[in-house]
């Protein structure tokens, strides 16, 4: 399973590196979202600082939708989904590989966005360990849920319109938990954020477990 996951993740990441979609489209979009929020809320610097965690994860959520749609589009073209089903790869490995590739892209975007939040919004990081742990747990949950619902939406052939409707309610707990944890790490009390980080870990494990068990069936049925 893990060998197959490595093969699929490597394949997806090589496609992204060659196409440069993340670098040329997703990343500029995410930075633009932060800039627009900053311009809209700049007169009230205090509110901008307090809202920085939420604005950060809203931008990440938009990037998640773009990354998942891109991953689905790659497999939907030229009968690639049928080839993937017939490849003999472990369905759980396929799921973990695609989720890993999406997570790697999101982490790269998050690094740039974190720098942008600190520079443009003037926030102070008081809990680096909490920040990193929450980002990893939230990213794992976003990537796992996005990959799972992405294959479901692709099977219904309405990915562009249905995927956001399916994903946004599912990702709401992750968005809330990540925002609360980041608020504690950015100028707050770090100890207040660890329960939220634990909740993010639980959600990530649930999404990863369910995706590992159900991905094969969804891939065949859709």
The secondary-structure element order is HHHHHHHHH
Rounded to an integer, what's the Rg over CA atoms? 18 Å
Structural class, by secondary structure, is mainly alpha
Q: How much of the sequence is in beta strands?
A: under 5%
Mean pLDDT: 81
First-last Cα distance: 22 Å
Question: How would you describe the shape?
Answer: globular
Per DSSP E runs of 2 or more residues, the count of β-strands stands at 0
Give a brief rundown of this model:
With 222 residues, this protein is mainly alpha-helical. The chain has 9 helices and no strands.
Looking at this protein, list some descriptive labels.
222 residues, mainly alpha, globular
């Amino acid at each position: 399973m893990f060998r197959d996951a490595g093969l699929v993740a490597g394949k997806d990441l090589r496609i992204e590196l060659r196409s440069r979609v993340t670098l040329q489209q997703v990343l500029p979009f995410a930075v633009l979202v932060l800039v627009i929020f900053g311009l809209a809320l700049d007169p009230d610097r205090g509110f901008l600082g307090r809202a920085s965690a939420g604005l950060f994860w809203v931008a990440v959520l938009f990037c998640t939708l773009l990354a998942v749609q891109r991953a689905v589009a790659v497999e939907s073209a030229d009968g690639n989904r049928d080839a993937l089903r017939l490849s003999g790869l472990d369905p759980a490995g396929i799921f973990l590989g695609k989720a890993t590739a999406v997570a790697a892209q999101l982490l790269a975007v998050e690094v740039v966005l974190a720098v942008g939040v600190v520079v443009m919004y003037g926030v102070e990081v008081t809990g680096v360990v909490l920040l990193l742990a929450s980002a990893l747990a939230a990213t794992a949950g976003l990537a796992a849920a996005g990959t799972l619902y992405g294959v479901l939406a692709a099977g219904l052939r309405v990915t562009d319109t249905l995927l956001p409707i399916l994903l946004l309610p599912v990702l709401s707990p992750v968005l809330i938990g990540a925002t609360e944890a980041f608020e504690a790490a950015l100028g707050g009390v770090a100890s207040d954020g660890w329960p939220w980080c634990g909740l993010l870990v639980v959600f990530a494990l649930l999404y990863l477990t369910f995706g590992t068990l159900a991905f094969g069936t969804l891939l065949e049925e859709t």
